[in-house]
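DATA SHEET
Item: assembly model
Revision: 1
Owner: S.N.
Input lines:
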Amino acid sequence: MVHYKLYYFDVRGWAEISRQLFALSKTPYEDIQITHEDWPNHKQEMPFEKMPVLSVDGVMIPQSFAIARYLARQFGYAGKSPLEEAMVDALGDQVKDYFNEAYPYFIASHQQKPAEELEKLKNEVFLPARDLLFRYLENFLKKSKSGYLVDSGLTWIDLFVVDHLGTLCGFEPSTLDGHELVRVIFHNIKKEKYHGVNCVNV
Amino acid sequence: MVHYKLYYFDVRGWAEISRQLFALSKTPYEDIQITHEDWPNHKQEMPFEKMPVLSVDGVMIPQSFAIARYLARQFGYAGKSPLEEAMVDALGDQVKDYFNEAYPYFIASHQQKPAEELEKLKNEVFLPARDLLFRYLENFLKKSKSGYLVDSGLTWIDLFVVDHLGTLCGFEPSTLDGHELVRVIFHNIKKEKYHGVNCVNV
């Protein structure tokens, strides 16, 4: 049997999609959570000096989306045809583009910058990026027959979107107002009945 | 027979890996090059209002790396096992991270900003990002048995790295000095004997 170890910090962050995939597929794995204090002792063990990293019988795979795609393909959550897998990948890269665009706002929030600076970044950087992402997600959801982003059902990109938007809802409960199609993904994932997906308040 | 159409501008850019994959695999496709003047007439036809987009019998796949991965898997250039595919994907996402880090320098160069500003961005942003990427690529190349980034041979990420570094060499011929392992990828790709990969001066 394959021995999986998932290395990350003791937060959800970029490892959470993969933890959800292990939970959904009921696959045993070691969830190795490294503290920030201990991280300098482990950094050189990681191929790109970053986490998450997935060890598959000792082979170290870096990069969160590469890990998620690999696990999703093993467990049946990557899309059910090559074309659908490509569409899930495209959604993944688009979400990454959104994340990179919105990043100056996320980092400023994390660093507790002055309110005026945050408000400016929120209005000029974050909200336009988020609204564009919602528009694209909703276009996919309108066409989908499954209540998830692609026709055949739940994939790793639904898990990422729900985890991230769940975090945003924690800060700003109105995040999903007017976005009922997106909210449907949350409701459908809740029905999957597995451990703690991040949509308690949605 | 599948009917492929690749939509992009009339430049290499983010479509070039996919064009190379069509050339390597000798697969017929329509290379639809849209001018910047005509782009506003086509923007709404694209799922994320950006190009490249690949049409597969009318199904529109956006995002350059999603397209490249899809074609590479169809044509045998994605890695030869699920673990190797994951490693190629991880390299792809790492190269994207490098690209995002170095982007302020690329855009300032493109906008012909003053020399002093460019020099500062080059030294503080671009060179550290590039040197880190070289270090990671060289770690993979040291372990690889094939002269490409993964053991089983040429994949789409080699094509992307060579195309991008080939462009950099056009601006700065010393780019690969001291990076002989990386230069080997260029020499190996030249031996594949297909149309115009971007490494004429390497």
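QC remark: Residues 82-110 of chain A form the longest helix (29 residues).
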